[in-house]
Hints:
3-stranded antiparallel sheet, alpha/beta, disordered C terminus, Rossmann fold, 6-stranded parallel sheet
Amino acid sequence: MVNQAGMTERRRNIRRAVIGGQPVDLLQREQLTAAVCEALAGARDPLLLASANLDHIYRFHGEADLFERRAPGHWLVLLDGMPLVWAARRLTGVAWDRLAGSDYLPELLALAEARGARVGFLGGTDGLREPLAVALRERWPDLRVTGHWTPSRAAVLNPAASHMLACDIREAGTDVLVVGLGKPRQEQWMARHASQTGARVTAAFGAAAEFVAGTQRRAPAAMSAAGAEWLYRLAREPRRLARRYLAEGPVALARVAREHEVPESAPLGTVIGADIAA
């Protein structure tokens, strides 16, 4: 029998859970920031960040091993969607922070500005370039931007073209690369090419750059906290998002309900150098 104190200590030291059949790293916001700072300082392996929500659960069904690969970078799969945040809380008894890429990107950019790290953007349309550049200059005037690459889908899927793209990003001296190619392409591209870019932090943050630029609007905070951000987005883009939220979403939610576990694993401290506070 494990007493309550022992169970609490084991929960505090959990590094990773499996939710909806997908590995998810259990981190509080300050721990993620500590890991990012270590990566930027070269004190740990480069980081590859992914956001886990219901779309993630659906897209990567049968491909969980993508996020288990550790070399030449280390994946951190962040709790994004509220159904996953709630599932992690039920599994561990810990109130985990929601670490949506769209919420965390401004902090990541502020960290890069403060440390003199150079930031590049990959993805979006040519029409995003100017409003994003304007927003960056206004909010982070000292941020060093190496470039904004908007390859075609064909180029993203072509290994030779993607290799050349990654080399361009490296030659520009990019330390932080924000990738918005849509799931699952952005994570798959990172798994194949992130190491070639030379970036210390590569973040698959979807439409987060569009939120920074103001070309897309976020749901009200209350809706996000209640897990209803999907409803807001569906109302704004019904034709594009109806299948994702009305057909694929319930399938993913069912997986979250039935496929979850907390494997016995190394403490989180071995990953980012800090224990989890209950």
